[in-house]
Automatic annotation (TrEMBL):
Record key words, sorted: Membrane, Transmembrane, Transmembrane helix
Keyword Membrane: yes
Name the UniProt record assigns to this protein: Uncharacterized protein
Domain of life (superkingdom): Bacteria
Length: 221
């Protein structure tokens, strides 16, 4: 291998490590900020939870339980991610460092699945009220046809034809449509967040992973 090739590879690796350190540091700061945010939110909701228990009533307690559960899951995810970032060592052998970087900057990690129930708990906690709770309770206690309700909900959510008239008519005849509508809205929001997350990964994090893969290939060859 020529001296110029060695020099170029060394410069490429040095430039990559510098960029990697900056991005890792930014991610660690972000996880720390989010962790502190969820801790503060939990501190706020703990006394609220206590007062709701003192007042009695199932729905207010359920609201706080769902919200606290959502915040707790997000807190665990942020704390776990920050802990992993703090353990990163740039003194490791180059190939090992690159392979860990490639793994760290993949688009999906198993712990990401925890964000789905966390987001769902927050959506339920923030949207639940006495009327919706009673409607759900009546729905599950009734002997009415599930298929009819699901077809009605599907038509309402996806037909788009005179939906405002359909809504006024349907809410009186079929109160559970509000719950189905909220579920549909939750799915829409979740899909939008996934798309935005994918775009962010493509623009900001995929180049780092691709660079790591290229360097791994060069070293192994």
């Amino acid at each position: 291998m020529s001296n110029s090739k060695i020099s170029k590879d060394t410069n490429d690796m040095g430039s990559f490590i510098g960029k990697l350190k900056r991005e890792d540091n930014n991610l660690q700061k972000l996880y720390k900020i989010l962790k502190i945010t969820y801790i503060v939110l939990l501190i706020i909701y703990i006394p609220i939870f206590y007062f709701e228990i003192e007042k009695g009533g199932l729905v207010p307690i359920l609201k706080v339980v769902f919200i606290v559960s959502g915040f707790s899951i997000f807190l665990f995810c942020m704390a776990y991610a920050q802990k992993k970032m703090k353990k990163i060592s740039y003194a490791e052998p180059t190939l090992m460092l690159l392979k860990k970087t490639e793994k760290r900057y993949r688009i999906f990690h198993p712990i990401d699945l925890a964000s789905i129930p966390a987001f769902l708990f927050l959506a339920v906690g923030l949207g639940l009220n006495e009327k919706i709770f009673l409607t759900i309770k009546q729905f599950f206690n009734s002997d009415l046809n599930w298929r009819v309700y699901l077809v009605e909900a599907w038509q309402f959510l996806f037909s788009g034809e005179h939906w405002y008239k359909m809504f006024a008519k349907t809410v009186n005849e079929f109160p559970m449509i509000i719950v189905f509508m909220a579920t549909g809205l939750f799915i829409y929001i979740l899909v939008i967040l996934l798309v935005l997350g994918y775009i962010l990964w493509i623009l900001k994090y995929k180049p780092i992973r691709d660079n790591a893969l290229e360097l791994i290939k060069e070293i192994e060859n």
